[in-house]
Structure formats: C-alpha cells, structure tokens
Specification:
The protein is mainly α. It has three helices and three strands, in the order ααβββα. The protein has a three-stranded antiparallel β-sheet with strand order 1-2-3, with no helix packed on it. A hairpin with a 5-residue loop joins strand 2 and strand 3. The protein is extended, with a radius of gyration of 17 Å.
Length: 95
C-alpha cells in the first residue's frame, strides 16, 4: 500500500498546478506532459519559440522561417555523456 504523504489541501493545489501546466502544454501541441519528455519539450518550446511538429516520425520542431529541428536534451546533473539516436546520418544532418 502506498502512503499518501500529501495533505488534502496540498494535493488539491498540486493537482490544480499540474492541470494548468497541462493546459499550457496542450496549447503547444503536447498531449501529455508526463509522457515522451512532454514537460522537457514544453520547456524547450517556450524558451526557443519553436513550434512542435505533429507525429512521431521526422523532426520535432520548426522555427518561424520553416527550418526544422530534431531536438535532443540531456540533464548534465544526471549524465556524464550522451549520444545521438542510432539513425543519425549525413542525410538527416543535412535536413
């Protein structure tokens, strides 16, 4: 059994804030902030002004000039190294 460590008031406040964050994410095309790096993606979109590209195939975002981007992120507090995805090739880089 999982013990509830939040008081009712704290739990309700937390839930309200999560709903607000999800509403913001939904406006940016992110259906779930807790799946597929949705929260991190929202952060990147808000900081860069990029727009999300729909679907799971291809690039992740586009700028105001129509340039597309494959987004990668890493938490340097948790990781000492990283690599690109296994499909990276000159054709993808050229895009």
């Amino acid at each position: 059994m999982i013990k509830n460590i939040l008081t009712h008031d704290c739990s309700e406040r937390y839930s309200q804030e999560v709903r607000k964050l999800q509403a913001l994410a939904t406006k940016h095309g992110i259906s779930d902030i807790f799946q597929d790096n949705g929260g991190k993606l929202l952060q990147v979109l808000l900081f860069t002004g990029l727009k999300i590209l729909p679907g799971r195939e291809g690039n992740d975002a586009v700028d105001e000039r129509g340039r597309e981007y494959e987004l990668k992120s890493v938490n340097i507090e948790l990781t000492s190294s990283f690599s690109t995805h296994h499909h990276m090739n000159p054709g993808i880089i050229e895009k």
